[in-house]
Amino acid sequence: MEMSRRTFTLGAAAVGAAAAMASPAQAARKAGKSATTRPLDAIVLGAGVSGLNAAWLLEQQGLKVLVLEGRQRVGGRVHTLFDLPGVPEMGFNSMGDGYGRGIDAAHRAGVELIEVGKRYMHGKPQELVLDGKPLTREQWAAAPFNPLPDALKTSMPWEVTNKLIAMHNPLEDWAAWLDPANASLDISLHAFLTQQGLSDAAIRLVNDVSPYYGINAYDVSALMLEFNSGFVMTQISAGPNSWAIKGGNERLPQGMAALLKGEVLLGKEVVSIDSRTDVAEVRCADGSVYQAGRVVCSLPFSTLRHVAITPGLSGAQARAVATLPYQPLSMAFLTATEPFWEHDGRAPGMWTNSALGTVLPQRFGATADEVTGLLVQARGGLARLWDRLGTEAALAKIVATFEELRPAARGKLKAHRLFSWEAEYFNAGDWAYFAPGQIASFVPTMAEPHGRIHFCGEHTATGARGLEGALESSERAALEILSL
Ligand SMILES: Cc1cc2nc3c(=O)[nH]c(=O)nc-3n(C[C@H](O)[C@H](O)[C@H](O)COP(=O)(O)OP(=O)(O)OC[C@H]3O[C@@H](n4cnc5c(N)ncnc54)[C@H](O)[C@@H]3O)c2cc1C
Predict the structure, then answer these.
(1) What is the DSSP string of 355-402?
(2) What pLDDT sits at residue 35?
(3) Which of 35, 44, 67, 178 is 20 to 30 A removed from 161 (C-alpha atoms)?
(4) Alpha helix ranges (H) inside 110-178
């Protein structure tokens, strides 16, 4: 598929600026107008999976849709480095058997799903490396410095938070997480873990060394994690598989974009959205202007907060757009010139409390035995430290720390790429998360339509998480428009 459509920009601008219609559904039914002269019914902002799916759903009902994307590629947080061995994923990894929407989207887009869960589990289990020393599970359980309560001593640090939330989830029905009756659960993860008997030292180790959400356990709402846990449990009960896209996950949004009849314009940074009584108008940084009856905005709030919206948002919605936090996460992709893990007999994967973060072996060659690369991941404060160092210094530090922890790797590592989601202009962070109190404060209302503007994107999902949540949110936004 031809992904660069910049040459179409001017033509589409002329079409887009044509007079808007009162009702998109009405306009779609208008006879006698050719596809090229008919004004746009909807402009979708952002060509991640939620925006692309919203566009497809609207087109299926006869609406004329234009997609505007700031980057020079589609996919957003589904991003594959096609030029590196094993085509490493910087974003979305895999979907479970319960991802009805994701699996359906893949079939529609004509891409092939491959099972990757067994590859994640292949080989020696990830090693715990604390203060430079490797520890087996047995050594860790018996270590005098293990700060976990007795019942958890055999758990590895990265297993504890999810285990405790799954075991003590106070949400009887995880899908009811937004019910005001559950607002009292909107406390910090730190408070939840303290209730489970963890000391501050234990919480620092199990969460803050490599946090999925925020910098430390005070940052994230336990209620969000309880909702998340319910979703994950449902996935596990749906089946044992983890599915990815053969050849690279970014092929999914590419296939979804190829299904659209309307244009997907790349390099179109949206800078303002004006919702007027008769039309919605979108302006881009390059000066182009587009009009349509409706706008579907899939922009993460981390970037939407830099877009001028008229009339301005107010109340809880304004607060949400201004303050919704996004996770710092950075990754380095390395390859090894020799399988040093065979020389020292240790696992290639490591979870460390050092400047190296977590090392995840990539097994995307012909067989799972082949390690195609080492994905090194930093979350929270460590991600910010890498970012501050800059690419060259960060990669040098990562390699030096790796070699210090694994002498067998000395001189055998090649650093290829550093990728920071927080430094990405069009994301400014990885996934959204809710701080304690934010769920009760703004989540139920933050995605409500604002005049002619409708919101979607993973951050607005209420019944699913991750990619499945992004798709779910696009269904809601499309239905809002189709039911006008
Ligand atoms: C590292 C990582 C791992 C993940 N792993 C999984 C996983 O294993 N399973 C799972 O289910 N989910 C996973 N996810 C989450 C999943 O990838 C996302 O939920 C989903 O891709 C989000 O889609 P979206 O359309 O909501 O947002 P995005 O993909 O972010 O799309 C938003 C689009 O808007 C564009 N944009 C932003 N600002 C502007 C602007 N001003 N003008 C024009 N365009 C703009 C962006 O370029 C982007 O293309 C992962 C995400 C990451 C980052």
Answers:
(1) TT-EEEEE--SSSTTS--EEEEEEETHHHHHHHHH-HHHHHHHHHHHH
(2) 52
(3) 178
(4) 117-121, 137-142, 157-167
Cβ distance 375 to 357 under 8 Å? Answer: no
Q: Which of 467, 468, 475 maximizes ligand 1 atoms within 8 Å of its Cβ, making it the mutation to test the pocket?
A: 467
User: Alpha carbon of 80 to those of 73, 74, 153, 245, 369: distances in Å?
Assistant: 11, 11, 38, 10, 21
Q: Is 202 exposed, middle or buried (0-12, 13-18, 19+ CB in 10 A)?
A: buried
Give the mean pLDDT of 367-391. 97
Q: How far is the CA of 14 from the centre of ligand 1 (A)?
A: 29
Q: Which residues of 288-313 are buried (b: 16+ CB within 10 A; e: fewer)?
A: bebbbbbbbbbbbbbbbbebebeeeb
- Going from the C-alpha of 164 to that of each of 179, 207, 222, 236, 339, the distances in angstroms are 22, 12, 11, 17, 36
What are 48's two structure tokens? 């991640």
Amino acid identity, position 356: L
Write out residues with Cβ below 6 Å of ligand 1: 45-51, 68-71, 76-78, 91-95, 268-270, 298-300, 303, 307, 329, 421, 426-427, 430-431, 457-458, 466-468, 470
Q: What is the pLDDT of residue 15?
A: 32
pLDDT in the model for residue 36: 60
Q: Which protein residue has the closest C-alpha to ligand 1 atom 8?
A: 93
- The fraction of the chain above a pLDDT of 70, given in percent, is 93
Closest residue (by CA) to atom 49 of ligand 1?
A: 76
pTM, entire model: 0.93
Residues 278 and 282: their CA atoms lie apart, in Å, by 14
Q: In the structure, what pLDDT confidence band is assigned to residue 29 with cuts at 50, 70 and 90?
A: very low
